[in-house]
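User: Here's a structure from my thesis project, written as structure tokens. My advisor, Dr. K., wants to see whether a designed sequence matches the one we expressed. Can you design one independently, without my sequence as a hint?
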């Protein structure tokens, strides 16, 4: 019913160009896998009365290493703009299996250690 009557629409980023999304509540999910150009294109589609939520997990970027996440770039570039808020969730916010918190923490600790090793390596060079 909702999709048939265009109350709810699912649209890939590839079909956003040229559109203005107004009188709408828009959710961009898994945004960590958008490129910077895709993120800019999406954000510039918002009409005057649109509301938007963008979700993503920067620890789960599936883009090639040579391509930066549009979500990361957007947070870095736009976080200071009035009307744009960033909310970070962590392992304490997990509502999945009890082991997921421990898994997330293990990966986070490993990533922090990897970054520390890389920083030491860069300083030695």
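Assistant: Designed independently from the structure alone:
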């Amino acid at each position: 019913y909702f999709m048939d009557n265009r109350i709810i629409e699912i649209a890939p980023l590839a079909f956003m160009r040229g559109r203005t999304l107004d009188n709408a509540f828009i959710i961009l999910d898994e945004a960590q896998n958008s490129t910077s150009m895709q993120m800019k294109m999406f954000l510039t589609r918002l009409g005057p009365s649109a509301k938007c939520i963008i979700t993503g997990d920067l620890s789960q970027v599936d883009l090639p290493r040579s391509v930066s996440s549009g979500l990361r770039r957007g947070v870095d570039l736009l976080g200071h703009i009035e009307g744009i808020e960033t909310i970070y969730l962590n392992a304490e916010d997990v509502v999945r299996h009890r082991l997921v918190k421990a898994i997330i923490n293990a990966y986070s600790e490993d990533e922090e250690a990897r970054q520390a090793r890389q920083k030491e390596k860069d300083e030695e060079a």
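When you compare it with your expressed construct, this may help: The mean pLDDT is 93.
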